[in-house]
Amino acid sequence: MDASLELLQSSGLSVSLGQALSLILLSIGLICVVKQSLRKRLRLPPGPTGWPLIGSLPLLGNMPHHSLYHLSKQYGPIMYLKLGTTDTVVVSSPKIAEACLKTNDLNFSSRPGSSATKYIGYDNKGIVMAPYGPYWRMLRKICNIHLFAGKALDDLQPVRQAEVGMLLKSIMDHERQEKAVNLGDLLNICTANVLGQIMLSRRVFDSQGSTAGEFRGMVVEQMELAGKFIIGDLVPSLAWMDLQGLRSKMKNLHNRFDEFLSRMIKEHETASCTIGGRADFLSVLWALRNDVDGEGGKLTDTDIKALLLTLFTAGTDTTSSTVEWAIAELIRHPEMMRKCQQEIDSVMRGEQRRVKESDLQKLTYLQAVVKETFRLHPSTPLLLPRLAAEACEIEGYYIPKNARLMVNAWGMQRDPDVWERPLEFDPNRFVGSNVDVRGSDFQVIPFGAGRRICAGMSMGMRMVQLILATLLHSFDLSLPDGQLPEKLDMVEAFGLTMHKAVPLIVVPAARLPLHLYN
Ligand code: HEM
């Protein structure tokens, strides 16, 4: 009797399990069919078909912003493609960029993480990659109050000025020894040291000194790793295989960063460190960590390290590469270089001093040169990727939930449908024009737009203008070995930021009395 009951129960059980399984499979099938038909009905944007598993990845080539621009001419200003198995939407017109980053800003306010930001960048805890929400808002608020907005930005002016002074001094050392200068390299040292001083009261990129050299090596390695397209990020089902063997490199790099930043925290635990009479950013964070925003917001050691690391990454190369491109363009256009120098000389009215930040607003032609540089040479050509939090509709097309959004700022800023003579470097197009680069005019958005617009935009702008004006005021710059300006190599190298593929080497000739270089 017991045995037959058991048999009954067990057979009953197996029937219900079987039924449940069939039901689950049926539901999954149904969901897929509904999704497919919904997608068809709602129309995905046009785009290349791609291959199974890898999608359209092979179409990207070495210069994804170039390839995507050419594809947009074939498929249109809003394109859908699979990168690996990831739904990707690429936008290449100001109107559609505005629809995404302004009208639908909230929906695109998070970013897709990557292996680099996960393994190197403290599991996306830094401000650049943190998901949209209260934690990210708290980080933005801290950064605005203590680094980027009004008073903080003004108070930190002497720090920027001092580091630009160090840059002049090292260029002058080359001049005295009649040596050519790798300008990109020195600019990079300058911008990293500005951030190092502001955040840690420390020159993190000195060429001498082991700690500084070590940190610099780490930042360079990070830029290389973070600039790669990683197969596991785009085909998540293959992530575990780590096909490119990068995971251990990233973890190793993370450990070195962590060791460095932990050491910095240890130094700041006991005493507040100041720079220019003001507590440095790490001291501020340390003092505030138990109630950061006056609303009980807390920061752990890991949060602090992640924040510092992402600020270094976001602020260093972007700024220095912009100045390098500007100087390269001015060397190719000597009449524009002269015009800038004349403008600076006339604003200085013969005073024996260096350029100050308060002079910058009077340098309208120099400002136009900077805008034109941002247009032709945006340091992050595809901005930083965004993620569709929910499915939505853009220009009548269906954008699936979790699709990755890429805005091809580089493409829009060189598009003949948007700009006249788009490939010509012509600062005059911005003279007397209201078009700005700060995220409200979508034909030129080097800092992005919307809620996730560059947090350091004002600081970046000031640094680019100050460094450029100071260099042009202080030196005549020419090419070595009789190289012709019109032959200067302007080829780009794609990475986390867009550099000159061939570094800019210049010969400096001093224009000012010698004491101004010390
Ligand atoms: C010429 C200089 C710079 C350029 C061209 C630039 C460009 C950009 C771009 C395109 C983005 C992505 C915006 C978007 O998704 O819409 C970004 C984000 C960001 N940038 Fe900059 N940047 C520059 C300088 C700086 C500096 C100096 C700092 C700070 C030290 C900085 C900190 C950030 C941060 C924290 C983010 C992430 C914002 C967020 O996700 O909330 N940037 N930047």
Structural description of this entry:
By secondary structure, this protein is α+β, with helices and mostly antiparallel strands. The chain has one domain: Cytochrome p450, CATH 1.10.630. 51% of the residues lie in helices and 8% in strands. It is built from 17 helices and 13 strands. A four-stranded mixed sheet has the order 1-2-9-6, covered by helices on one side. A three-stranded antiparallel sheet has the order 3-13-10. The protein has a two-stranded antiparallel sheet with strand order 4-5. Strand 7 and strand 8 form a beta hairpin. Helix 13 packs across helix 14 and helix 13 crosses helix 15. The radius of gyration is 26 Å and the shape is globular. The N terminus is likely disordered. Bound molecules: protoporphyrin IX containing FE. The site of protoporphyrin IX containing FE (HEM) has 26 residues, from helix 13 and helix 17. Protoporphyrin IX containing FE binds next to helix 13 and helix 17.
Widest β-sheet, arrangement of strands: 1-2-9-6
The percent range for helix content is 40-55%
Query: How does the helix and strand content classify structurally?
Result: alpha+beta
Q: In oligomeric terms, what are we looking at? A: single chain
Bound molecules: protoporphyrin IX containing FE
Question: What is the element layout, followed by pairings?
Answer:
Blueprint: H1 2-42, H2 64-75, E1 78-83, E2 86-91, H3 94-103, H4 115-119, H5 134-148, H6 150-155, H7 157-176, E3 181-182, H8 183-200, H9 210-226, H10 231-234, H11 247-270, E4 274-275, E5 278-279, H12 281-288, H13 301-332, H14 334-348, H15 364-376, E6 386-387, E7 392-394, E8 397-399, E9 404-407, H16 409-412, H17 457-474, E10 475-478, E11 492-493, E12 499-500, E13 505-510
Parallel strand pairs: 2-9
Antiparallel strand pairs: 1-2, 3-13, 4-5, 6-9, 7-8, 10-13, 11-12
Bound molecules: protoporphyrin IX containing FE.
The site of protoporphyrin IX containing FE has 26 residues, from helix 13 and helix 17.
GO molecular function: heme binding; iron ion binding; monooxygenase activity; oxidoreductase activity, acting on paired donors, with incorporation or reduction of molecular oxygen
Cofactor: heme
Keywords: Heme, Iron, Membrane, Metal-binding, Monooxygenase, NADP, Oxidoreductase, Transmembrane, Transmembrane helix
